[in-house]
Design a protein that fits this description.
This protein is an alpha/beta fold. The chain is 39% helix and 15% strand. The chain has 13 helices and 13 strands. The strands form 2 sheets. Strands 3-2-1-4-5-6-7 form a 7-stranded parallel β-sheet, with helices on both faces. The protein has a 6-stranded parallel β-sheet with strand order 10-9-8-11-12-13, with helices on both faces. Helix 1 crosses helix 13 (323-358) and helix 8 packs across helix 12. The chain starts with a strand and ends with a helix.
């Protein structure tokens, strides 16, 4: 099977710091190569992969000061992929709407993994192409009626996440994620101040969120109770989560998955999250953390989370959210799509023969 993996261009694959989609694409791609599949990764030129790399730009768009209109490169990438669509058995797109119009113009099937939520405007585009095959990354993500081939949860390589049996002293709670209103860093700070816990925070600040960060977050960072570590790499991320007593996931939007939850549980740290989006599908309530109805409840559940068995959290990830399970899910989707296509193609000659005999 020859497979094209189409990644976003804003971050490299895998990301050097923040980038959930790119991390997932990296793990899927490399595992497919290890299993013997012929894979081409379409991504930025600074990406690192076991597959053949086909790059339309030399580095991640976010890091290239010479690129002023990143959207044009996304269009270039999509066009480049589909100009050579006939070379592949299947195309796996991780870039959202960019591949939808082109996918319907070629015979090579495309499966689209949905990594984000639907907006009022984007829903119109997806509805126009609703019959194409889609993979949701949680059941909660299925907010509009599309041709869902499967739900495949994101997975991580447990070898990249060392288990920590005991949190650090003095204790602290952690927040990891983009510093944007929907990720809820403002609520993490409020919870820390209400409970008196030290809070360590890490993540990137996008240009669109700079004003929010400077007005709502920066004034509350004192370097003592509220500490900001900046945009951290993988090693620092694992250290932050592993040494924490609890990780907070105080989102304000319907998060499609939330990779930080499984990363935290993988190192043994329970997660307290708000009951939105995929949270109840990822956290085993009362075992690996708590799913709460309000931010106030999140604050009250910290003492209970401290009593949870950290090994149970890691086992929950091992049983549900590994790269192996994720790629098994995607391979099953590929095979089903190709099998269905072959059956349809086989029926067409039969139908023509029948019509000829009738005539």
């Amino acid at each position: 099977m020859k497979i094209a993996q189409v990644a976003p261009l804003w971050e490299r694959v895998p990301p050097s710091t923040y980038g959930g989609i790119e991390l997932v694409v990296s793990r899927v791609t490399d595992e497919l190569v290890r299993r013997g599949y012929d894979v081409t990764l379409f991504a930025s030129g600074d990406s690192q992969t076991l597959a053949e790399l086909d790059a339309i730009c030399p580095r991640a768009l976010r890091l290239d000061p010479d690129i002023k209109e990143g959207m044009m490169y996304e269009m270039l990438e999509a066009s480049h992929v589909y100009q050579q669509a006939a070379e592949f058995d299947i195309i796996h797109s991780h870039v959202g709407i960019w591949t939808l119009p082109l996918a319907s113009m070629v015979s090579t099937p495309t499966v689209h993994t949905l990594h984000g939520n639907f907006t009022r405007d984007s829903s119109k585009v997806y509805n126009l192409h609703r019959t194409q095959p889609y993979v949701s990354i949680s059941n909660a993500q299925r907010q509009i009626d599309l041709n869902y081939a499967s739900t495949v949860y994101n997975g991580i390589d447990l070898g990249d996440y060392q288990f920590v049996s005991q949190p650090a002293q003095p204790p602290y709670i952690a927040f990891l994620g983009r510093f944007s209103p929907e990720k809820g860093p403002q609520h993490a700070i409020a919870i820390a101040k209400k409970t008196g816990w030290r809070l360590k925070m890490a993540g990137k600040v996008d240009v669109v969120d700079k004003e929010f960060f400077e007005k709502e977050i920066a004034p509350q960072i004192d370097g003592k109770q509220i500490e900001y570590l900046g945009e951290v790499d993988h090693a620092a991320k694992v250290e932050l989560l592993g040494n924490a007593s609890v990780t907070l996931f105080p989102i304000t939007w319907r998060e499609p998955f939330g990779l930080v939850m499984i990363e935290s549980m993988a190192v043994g740290t329970p997660v307290i999250g708000i009951n939105m989006g995929s949270v109840p599908e990822v956290i085993a309530h009362g075992k690996t953390g708590f799913v709460c109805q309000s931010y106030e409840e999140m604050a009250t559940m910290i003492p209970a989370a401290l009593e949870l068995d950290r090994l149970t959290s890691r086992e929950h990830v091992e049983n549900n959210f590994t790269v192996t399970q994720m790629v098994n899910g995607y391979v099953a989707v590929y095979e089903k799509i190709l099998r269905d296509r072959n059956e349809r193609n086989g029926r067409i000659p039969t139908l023509k023969t029948s019509l000829t005999s009738i005539a």
